[in-house]
Design a protein that fits this description.
Two copies of one chain form a homodimer.
Chain A: H1 4-19, E1 26-30, E2 36-41, H2 44-47, H3 54-64, E3 75-80, H4 84-93, E4 97-102, E5 123-126, H5 130-141, H6 151-159
Parallel strand pairs in A: 3-4, 4-5
Antiparallel strand pairs in A: 1-2, 1-3
Helix pairs in contact in A: 1-5
């Protein structure tokens, strides 16, 4: 199975996050019938809650929809390697597969900084459209928005 | 400062969790003026959400009350060492101090299984009323409830 089709959906969610001034990470949860059962992106700034990562929002969406019985059959497709908090959370809900784009060099909990205990029971595939995920992060950390005017125009606006 | 007074409050919350059939862990958040700003216990079974640990419930309580500006000055008093997910979350919100009772041998994220990156910036004190916290966990894992009839009576009930 190719995961690119699904990762593109997560990337679109990450772009929405970027436009909203959030760290651009997008995530979808897929059940065993290949149905998307939850979508989410970072909402840390909007909620003023440092824990509202894309994966956390997806978990809460599923619970609020009364679908927590699906936890153990889930495939998680997320643009950036889950941080230690989220990786530990995904172990805790018992998801079966994690597909991610680029590595999370500072907080990655799927092996980059630390491999959360229990992840051995979980299939992991990394590097799916990684460059696109990383490009979005770079845009955010440079304070640039792909939909904003180019830098010259931005400077002009700044002067005003 | 002695933390026992506060830990007793967290232990009471853990007892409430036990009575509700939850893993008995209780937690309080205290601000810099020694005011308790959030209380919580595990609600995993009630919510059917494996991530609803005592600490997570306290974070959400604070956010819902519009008090996330207090995150960086918080002291967290919790009966059991935060798991990796919760320890990473507490690092993420930037709390200043973590006080816990007994160690978490399976999932402890404050050093027992893993020390989450960033905890070096956080004061940690462990072992406060640890035995009482552990006793509650033992009661839970033995399937016993301190308020239930003794084992002979329980067997009798079971036969009926």
């Amino acid at each position: 199975m190719t995961w690119e089709k699904y990762m593109k959906i997560s990337l679109d969610l990450a772009k929405e996050a970027l436009q909203a001034g959030e760290v651009p990470v997008g995530c979808i949860f897929i059940d065993k019938d290949d149905k998307i059962v939850a979508t989410g992106c970072n909402t840390v700034n909007e909620t003023k809650n440092a824990t509202r990562h894309a994966e956390v929002n997806c978990v809460d969406k599923l619970v609020n929809d009364g679908l927590s019985n699906k936890f153990s059959e889930l495939t998680v497709v997320v643009t950036v390697e889950p941080c230690i908090m989220c990786a530990a959370m995904l172990v805790k809900i018992g998801c079966s597969t994690i597909i991610y784009g680029c590595a999370n060099d500072r907080f990655g909990g799927c092996g980059t900084v630390f491999e959360c205990p229990g992840l051995l029971n979980c299939k992991i595939q990394k590097g799916i459209l990684a460059e696109q995920a990383m490009d979005l992060l770079k845009l955010f950390y440079k304070g640039q928005n792909p939909n904003a005017p180019d830098s010259k125009v931005k400077k002009k606006i700044k002067k005003c």
